[in-house]
Amino acid sequence: MKTALIQQRYYGSKEATIARTLEMIAQTDAKLVVLQELHQSEYFCQSEDTAFFDYAEDIENDIAFWAEVSKKEQIVLVTSLFEKRTEGLYHNTAYVFDHGVLAGKYRKMHIPDDPGYYEKFYFTPGDLGFEPIDTSVGRLGVLVCWDQWYPEAARIMALKGAQILIYPTAIGYLECPKDRLDELCEKENTPEEKQKMREAWISVQRGHAVANGLPVVTVNRIGSEKDSSGILEGIHFWGHSFVFGPQGEPLAMAEEEETVMEVDIDLKASGEVRKIWPFLRDRRIESYTCLQKRFCDEKP
Amino acid sequence: MKTALIQQRYYGSKEATIARTLEMIAQTDAKLVVLQELHQSEYFCQSEDTAFFDYAEDIENDIAFWAEVSKKEQIVLVTSLFEKRTEGLYHNTAYVFDHGVLAGKYRKMHIPDDPGYYEKFYFTPGDLGFEPIDTSVGRLGVLVCWDQWYPEAARIMALKGAQILIYPTAIGYLECPKDRLDELCEKENTPEEKQKMREAWISVQRGHAVANGLPVVTVNRIGSEKDSSGILEGIHFWGHSFVFGPQGEPLAMAEEEETVMEVDIDLKASGEVRKIWPFLRDRRIESYTCLQKRFCDEKP
Predict the structure, then answer these.
(1) Residues B119-134 pLDDT 10s
(2) Residue B188's closest chain A neighbor by CA?
(3) ∠ CA B254-B191-A166 to the nearest 5 degrees?
(4) Domain boundaries, chain A
(5) Which of A81, A202, B84, B278 is the most exposed place for a label (fewest CB within 10 A)?
(6) Model pTM?
(7) Does B206 touch chain A (CB under 8 A)?
(8) Which residues are within 8 A (CB) of B57 and not within 5 positions of it... i.e. 6 or more apart?
(9) B58-93 pLDDT, tens per residue?
(10) Residues of B in contact with A285 (CB under 8 A)
(11) Structurally, what CATH architecture does the domain formed by B2-292 represent?
C-alpha cells in the first residue's frame, strides 16, 4: 500500500498553508495520505490565548473541505483538526476521510502540558477511547502526538485489530531567547540534548512497532514558529517523519525539509511477523490489573 | 551507581562456567552485578528432554552459593536460576541477593515457545506477578528475557516504583544446518535479517526506558551452543548487552565478546526526566480496560 507522509511548514495563514498542503497531496498517487498535527494552522498551543479558539469555529466546513479533497484525489486521508464540539468544549481530533466519506474520527486521548505545549488549556481529553477506523485501505489505528509516548494506546489499537499505527504530530525544540538564556532552554538546546530528545521520540514509537507487530507512520511538522505571546521564543519543529515496519525495521525517515515522503507498506507482513514473534499469544492478562491504576503503591 | 553486566559464554559444565563467572565478578568493584539468563548451564531449552530437569535439583544449594558470592563480594547480585518448586513444577527464576541475603525473587511471567526456545516445556509461567525487589542499591524491576517484548511488564514495574529495569537474557540466531538450509533458517540468517532481529530486540527495550523514564539494563549470552537433540543445529547468542538511560539515551553496548561491562547509572536522573516528560501524569487509566483482555474484538 503506497502511503504518503506530508511533512510541511506553516505558511502564515490558513489559506496559504492549505494551498501548499493541496499542492503536496497532488504530487503523490499514494492511496493513503497522512497530514501532520493541526496542519491548517500554526501550532497555537505555545501560548494560552482565547482568541485561538476561533480556529475551531469552522470545523463543519473544514470537515466538508477535506472530505472533498479525499474524494477529488481518490484517497484515504488522515487529517488533524481543531474540533469545536459546543461552547467551551474543544478537542484535538483526527478525522479520516475515505474517497469523500468521513470514515471516522479519533479525539486525542493523552493531552500534554509543558512549556511551549499548553494543550490542556485548549483540548478536552478525548472521550471516544482508542478505536481504530475502518477504511478501504485497512483498519487504521490513528493516534495523535502525545499518545506516542504511551505503549497502552498502541497496544489497545493492536488488540482492537488495527493494521497500522498512525501519528500526526507537532514536536520540536524550544527556541532559546537570544537575550535570555535561561537554564532550561540552554540545557534543552545543546546538540546532544536535541539528539537525545529526538531519538527518544523515535525509539519509543519504534518500540510500539516491535511490541505490536505493526507498521508505524508518524508525520511531524517542520519550521520555526514564534510564540505569539512573546513569552517564549518559539518552537523549531524537528521534522524527521518516519515509517517503521512491523519488526521495527526502518522503512523511511525524513530530514528537516518539506517532503512528500512515499513509502510502500505491506500490511500483510504483520501476520507473518506475529507468527514467529507471537507476543500476543503469551500476554499475562490476569496479572495486568495494575495498568488500570494511577500508581500501584499499595502492597498486594 | 556502578553496575556491571557479566556477558559470558558457556564453558561445557556447570563448574567451569561458574568458575568463569566468579572470575569475571571479581574483576569489578560495581555495587550491582547482573548475570545473564540461566547462567549456570547451557541454554538447554533448545530441545525438550526430561533429563534437563535435573539441572533444577540443586536449587537450594544454588541459592546458598550465590548468596555467599554476594556476601563475599559485598554486592547486590541478580542471578537467573532453574527453580524446582516441587515434583513436576519448575520456574525460570531470577534471585536477587544483597550482601549475603536473598532480597527477593522474580519468576519469569511470559514464557516463549518457538523453534529453538522450547521454554513452555520446562517453565511454568510465574505466579508472583510483577513485583520489584528492594535492595540496598534501590528498587529493582527484575524481569527475564521474553518479558522484554511486553510493555505491560515494564510499565507495571514502573508503577510499582521500580527505579531500574533489569533483564537477564538468552537470545540469538538459529544456526543454519550446513547440509539442510531450510527456508526458515535461510531467511533468518541473512545479515539483514540478523540485524533486523537484533535491532528490534534493542528498540523495544529502549522504548521501555523512554516510556517509563527508567534506565534499562540487559545482559545477554554469547557464543554458539549446540542443540543436544541434534534436531536443530544450535543457537548463536548475539551478546550486545546494553544499558539505556531514562530518556532512552545509550549508556553502553557490548559486542559479541565476553565482557564485564561497567556502567555508572544515576538513579536520580529518572526524577528529573519525569518532571519535564510527565508521562505518568496523563495516563487515561479509565480507558485501558482492553489491556486486560486477550483481544478486544467485541464492539463497545
Answers:
(1) 999 999 999 999 999 9
(2) A276
(3) 85
(4) 2-292
(5) B278
(6) 0.96
(7) yes
(8) B84
(9) 999 999 999 999 999 999 999 999 999 999 999 999
(10) 291-294
(11) 4-Layer Sandwich (3.60)
